[in-house]
Amino acid sequence: MRPRSVSYDYVLILATVAVLFAISVLCIYGMFAFKFAQIQNLPPAAKLAHMERLNRLAAPLIIALITLLGICIPKRLLPTRWLNRFAVLLLATAGTVGGVYGVRPALLVILTASLVLQLAVLALAVAGSGLLRFERSGYWLRLGSTLMHLGLILFVLDLFFFRRPLLHLALFWTTTVATTAGMLCCFYAQPLARLVQKKKGPPAP
Amino acid sequence: MENLSHILTLFTSAGRVLMGLLLAVATAGGVWGLANLCRRDPLLPRLSGPLLATATALMALGFLLIAWLHVEIHRLLPLTLPAELVPWLNRQLAAANQGSPYGLPLYDPAAPPRYVLPLWIENEKYFFWFLCSTGMALVAHRRLTQHRFRAALLLLAAVQVAVLFFTTNPFVEPLARFFAEVRPWFAATDPWQQFSLFMQLYPRMVFYYNAHYMWLHPPLLFLSYAAITLVFITSCLMLARREVDVEALGYDFAKLGFLALTLGMLLGYPWALQAWGPNWWWDPKICSSIMLWAVFSTYLHTRLYANKPHMWYFSSILGILSFVAMLFTLLASYYFPGEHTFQ
Q: What pLDDT shows up at residue A32?
C-alpha cells in the first residue's frame, strides 16, 4: 500500500502551530514567573534582567517563526519542487549571513526576501492573475489573504526597527492598514464583490 | 472640586434610578429566558424583543450619562498652576524631554492641561462592554427567531446587568481611582506641593487618560469581547443541536470580533512603546492577549473547513475555548500584576 502523501502546506501549518503553541507555553510561564518573582517590585536592573532572560528564551521561537514565514510566502508563486529549492537557498543564504554578520542581519535577509515576494504576490493578486496558488478562490478573498500576510511581515519588520520612531510609525501604520484592509476583504468578500458590481453596473448580456 | 460635587450627586442619583430600572427589565428578561430555554414551544414569544430593546436603550442612556460626567470633568478640573512656577516647570519638562523620543508637552498657562477622560475607565469599561454585548444581542435577536436562542440572549443580558448592578456599578462611587489621584492636587494650597503633585499627575494624564490610543485600543477590545461572548452562545447551542443559521450568525460575530481584537491589539503597540518603552512584551496581560488571539484565530481557521465531517463540532469547542481564553485574559488583570493591572 502506498503511504498517504502529506502536502507541503499541511507540514508548514503544523510547524507554525507547533511554534505558536511553544510561544503560548512560554507566555504562560512568563505570566507566572512575573507574578511569583514579584517582578513589578524589583529594582529596574533586576526587572530588565528578567525581561532579557525571557527574550533569550523567546528568540529561537521567533527565529523559527520568521524562517517558516520566509518559506511559506513563496508557496503562492512557486510549484513544490521549486519551493524546496527556494527554501534551501534561503536558509543557506541566511545561514551564511548569520555566520558572518550575526543573527539579526540573517533574519533581516529572510524578512526582506519575504517582503519582496509578498509584494510580487500582492501585485499579481491585484491584477487577478491566475498564476497564484491559493486554497480558496475569489478575487477579494485572495487579495485579503495577501494583504494580511503582508501586514504580518511588516509587523515583524516593525519589531526590528522600533527604536527608530519615524520608521517604526511608518511601518506600524502600513501594517495596520494592510491587516485591516486584508481582514475586510477576506471577511466581507461577498458584500464587497456585490458593491463593486453595483458600481460597475450589470454585466453585458 | 467643589464645582463638581453637585454634578456628582446628580450623576449618582440619576444613575441609581437608571440601574434600578435596568435591573428590573433585565430580571424580567432573565425569567423569560429561563422559562423559554427549558420549553419545547415558545412562551410569550412577543415579549423578548421589547425587553431586550428596552435594556439596550437604558444602557445607551447610562452611557450618555457617563459621557456627560466626563465632559463636566474636562470643563471644571483644569490643572492650573501658579504663574510663578511656570518657567521653572517648563525648564524641568524640557530637560526631562531631552533624549526621549516621546516627551511631555510644555505647560501653556493660557490653556492649562485638562483631562479628556475616555468613557471606558474603571467600572465604566464593564458598562461599555455590556452595552456592546446587549446591542449585538439585539441584532442577533432580530436575525434569528429560534426561541431557545433568544432565551440564551436574554439570559446573557440578565447576567451582565446583574454583574454591573452588584459588583461593578459605575454610578456608585464614580471614577473612585481617578478622584483619589486628583483630590490631593485640588486640596493642596502650597505652590511647591502643587508642583510636586503636578509632576505625578501630568505624565499619567498625557500617557494614559488623554492618550489618543485610549479612544481606540480599549473600546475595540471590549467590542471584540462582546462579539466573543456572542460566539460563545452560538457555539454552546451548536454543541447541543447543529443549526446552520445559528452557526452562520456566530461566524458573522466572530469575524467582527477578530477584526476588532486584532486592530485593538495592534493599536496598543505604539502606545506601549510611548508609555513604557521597550520590553513590555512580558507584561502578563499582553501574554494572555496573545494567547487569546492565537485561540480565536484557530477558531476562524477551523471554520474555513466547516463543511468537513465533525469539523463544526471542533469549531464549536474552539469558540467556547476562545470565550474561556477571553475570561482568563480579563481575570489576568486582577490576578497578575503588571502594567494592565486592575488591582
A: 83
Query: What would the pLDDT profile of B94-137 be if each residue is shown by its tens digit?
Result: 888 887 767 788 999 889 999 999 999 999 999 999 999 999 99
Rounded distance between C-alpha atoms, residue B299 and residue B314, angstroms: 9
pLDDT tens digit sequence for B131-169: 999 999 999 999 998 899 999 999 999 999 999 999 999
CA distances in angstroms from A18 to A25, A65, B86, listed in the order given? 11, 10, 57
Q: How far from chain centre, in Å, is Cα B65? A: 16
Task: List the grid coordinates of A86.
Answer: 527556494
- Closest to A115 in 3D by CA, of A193, A171, A34: A171
Residues B324, B96: Cα–Cα separation, whole Å: 43
Q: Which residue has the cell 490610543?
A: B213
Tell me the CA distances in angstroms from A21 to A1, A26, B290, B318, B329, one per residue in order. 34, 9, 11, 15, 17
Q: Do A188 and B255 touch (CB under 8 A)?
A: yes
Domain enclosing residue A176, as ranges: 8-189
Distance in angstroms (rounded) separating the CA atoms of residues B51 and B29: 6
For the record, the C-alpha cell of B287 comes out as 501574554
> Into how many domains does chain A fold?
1
In chain B, domain spans: 1-82+111-199, 211-343
In chain A, residues with a C-beta closer than 8 Å to the C-beta of B337 are: 34-35, 38-40
Q: How far is CA B276 from CA B176, B216, B340, in A?
A: 24, 18, 11
Work out the angle between the directed axes of helices B284-303 and A8-36 (0-180°, nearest 10).
Answer: 160
Picking from B262, B270, B336, the nearest residue to A31 by CB comes out as B336
Report the alpha-carbon distance of residue A72 to residue B304 in Å, rounded. Answer: 19
- Given an 8 Å threshold on Cβ–Cβ distance, is A35 in contact with B291? no
Is residue A90 domain-resident? yes
Q: Closest Cα to residue A115, out of A158, A176, A164, A61?
A: A158
3-state DSSP assignment of residue B190 = coil
| Structure-block grid coordinates of residue B212 | 489618543
Q: Does A179 touch chain B (CB under 8 A)?
A: yes
A65 CB-near residues (< 8 Å, 6+ apart): A16, A19, A20, A23
Cell numbers that stand for B207 in this block: 500617557
